[in-house]
Structures are given as C-alpha cells and as structure tokens.
Amino acid sequence: MADAGSDPVPQPRRRSPRALTAWCARATRTAPGTGTPATTASTPPPATEYVRPSHPLLSTGADSRLVVGTAFQPQPLRGRAGSRCRVELVPESANPYDGNALAVDLNGARIGYFSAGDAAQRQPGIRAANDVGYHVLADGEFVRIGGYLEVQLELPHARDLAWWLTHTEEQRASGFRPLTA
C-alpha cells in the first residue's frame, strides 16, 4: 500500500496570457489546405456547445457593464473610443473554469467575458432566451481605460429579461421592453 503522502494531488496548471493566446490559436486552427475549421459541417457540435438561435433579440437597458478579459483574446480589440458596437452574449455552460461563464462576441469573434458575478446573474436569462429561439444582442461603446480599448455594454437588469420571457410569443413580438423602462 502506497503512503498517502507520497502521491500529491495534481494541481490545475495556470496559463500565462501568452500561453492562453497560443492555446486559443491552436483551438481555432483550420484544416490543412482548406481554410475551413478543422471540424466539418457533418460533425455535429458537442451537446454543450452553443448553437446560435435564429431570431435576434436586442436587449437594451441602463445597466452599464464592462467586458472583462479583452486584453487576453488572440486578436486585439479594434475600434475607436466613443464609437458604438453591437455584440452577442453567448453562454458557456461547458467552460472548464466557470459553468456560468457568459462570453461576448463582436462580429463573430470572442472579445471577452462578463465578470463572474454578472455572468452568474445573467446567464440563466440568456440561456432561457436561447431556448425559445433568440440569440441575445446588446449595444455597447468602445472606451479607453488605462491605455486599453475596452467595451462598455448597456444592458437591462437581469430580472427584466426573465420577466419579458414570461410573456406569450404574441406579446414578445413587438421586441424587448425592459420592466424598468
């Protein structure tokens, strides 16, 4: 029988920003000579992978939130401070670091995430909207903070999206209306 102290429990490895960038690049590599992603259309996505619902839902509000982690993404954020943008909010339930992760995509490219606390509050509503056929969009503005270009989003309060989703399809047809308008 082995001594309990002789087999240390392996600890998860933390990646540096450079290693994380390299890992992201490998994960999105294309098939040789094709220019297409290594997975093909005939390969179904894993059950936990996000599949974009067909109907857009622009969620608007006065709750201002900063996208975090933009400096760690493989491609630098491009835009001009003060200019507007529209992003998609993508739940990442299978994220190995946070099951409540909520990613932010701009023009199909990942630019960052919500903070853990904000994601935990908002991901259930975003997933509920996805489940009824909406991909959730939000408006934002490029801002310069400490020399870095960041994105500030204008969102409804987390409860407003859940409240709106309780309405019938006919009532939702006119678009999102926050409870606290």
State the main characteristics:
181 residues; alpha+beta; Alpha-Beta Plaits; 7 strands; single chain; 22% helix; globular
CATH class annotation of one domain: Alpha Beta
Kindly state the percentage of residues in helix: 10-25%
Q: How many E-type strands?
A: 7
Please state the second-level CATH architecture of one domain. Answer: 2-Layer Sandwich
At the fold tier of CATH, the topology name of one domain is Alpha-Beta Plaits
Order of helices and strands: HEEEEEHEEHH
Low-confidence spans: 1-47
Number of helices: 4
**What about the largest sheet?**
7 strands, mixed
Give structural notes:
A hairpin with a 2-residue loop joins β4 and β5. This protein is of the alpha+beta class and 181 residues long. The protein has four helices and seven strands; from the N terminus they run αβββββαββαα. The chain has a domain at 54-172: Alpha-Beta Plaits. Strands 1, 2, 3, 4, 5, 6 and 7 form a seven-stranded mixed sheet that branches.
Brief characterization of the structure:
Helix content is 22%, strand content 27%. It has 4 helices and 7 strands.
What is the strand and helix layout of this fold?
Layout: H1 17-27, E1 55-58, E2 63-66, E3 84-92, E4 101-106, E5 109-113, H2 116-131, E6 134-145, E7 148-155, H3 158-165, H4 169-172
Parallel strand pairs: 1-6
Antiparallel strand pairs: 2-7, 3-4, 3-6, 4-5, 6-7
Helix pairs in contact: 2-3
